[in-house]
Structures are given as structure tokens and as C-alpha cells.
Design goal:
With about 140 residues, the chain is an alpha+beta fold. Helix content is about 15%, strand content about 45%. The protein has a five-stranded mixed beta sheet with strand order 10-7-9-8-11, covered by helices on one side. Strand 8 and strand 9 form a beta hairpin. Helix 1 (about 70-80) runs antiparallel to helix 2 (about 105-115). It is globular, with a radius of gyration of 18 Å.
């Protein structure tokens, strides 16, 4: 993923685990390009400007996750946390989900899913994937 941000006056920037480059553009504005995010970021710039980065993750759940209302609880949790994406039962008894939002939103959704008395998540696999720009809402497939 590569993101370019152009802002008139930037005093500084910092993120964790981010390779970045900063240079002065020909028109005098500072241009910063961030590359290789390993997790979502909150980018902070001088003058009180901050940008919250959205990520998308493909998450596979194993355990007692089918036949216990997992997908409906996932939709409820995602809608409450502002996460977009979808959830789907797989033939092997696992549940596949793609979730898009900030790291905090996705983590909060996962906490809510784990609080059910009927759902027992034994294994969770997360993989970062490219975001989808024109996605709205969370859907059960």
C-alpha cells in the first residue's frame, strides 16, 4: 500500500512501523509518501492535522462458529463499531470475514464477537488485504 499526502505546512510526522520519505515539492509544499504499513496508522501532522488510516483484513474463525448465530452477531458488532465488509460460512466449518475500518474498530468488533456464550473461537487467522473504496455496510453472505 502506498499513500501520498500533500499539505501546505507540515512541521513533522510520525508513525510506528512505517517506512516514509519526505521531500519538498517544486511549489514549496511538503510532500510525504508513506510505504509498507504493517498495521493501521494514525498519521499526525503539524498544526493539529491528523489522518486515520483504514485497513482491510481477511479473518478466518475456527471453533464453534457455525450454527450459533456467529454471522448475525458479527453483523451486529460490525454495524455498532462502524466496520464494513462481509461474513460467510465455509464448507469446512470455519467462518470467513473481510472487515474494513480502523484497527481500533476491528479490534472492538472482535471483542464483541468473543463475548457470546454460544460462540467459541478456537483459532483466528488475520491477513491484511487491500481496502475497497466503494464499500458501505456489513453484509452476511
Amino acid at each position: 500500500m502506498e499513500i501520498s499526502v500533500k499539505i501546505g505546512l507540515i512541521a513533522y510526522f510520525y508513525t510506528a512501523n512505517c517506512a516514509g520519505a519526505s521531500q519538498l515539492a517544486s511549489d514549496g509544499r511538503r510532500e510525504i509518501t508513506f510505504v509498507n504499513f504493517s498495521s493501521p496508522r494514525r498519521l499526525r501532522f503539524g498544526m493539529g492535522i491528523s489522518v486515520i488510516m483504514k485497513i482491510r483484513q481477511r479473518i478466518t474463525f475456527a471453533g464453534r462458529v457455525q450454527g450459533v448465530g456467529f454471522r448475525y452477531r458479527a453483523k451486529y458488532a460490525a454495524d455498532g463499531c462502524g466496520v464494513t465488509g462481509w461474513v460467510h460460512n465455509e464448507w469446512d466449518g470455519t467462518v470467513l470475514m473481510e472487515a474494513q475500518g480502523t484497527s481500533d474498530q476491528i479490534n472492538e468488533m472482535l471483542k464483541i464477537l468473543n463475548q457470546s456464550a454460544y460462540i467459541a473461537i478456537d483459532r483466528l487467522e488475520r491477513k491484511d488485504i487491500p481496502t475497497e473504496e466503494q464499500e458501505y455496510g456489513f453484509h452476511i453472505r
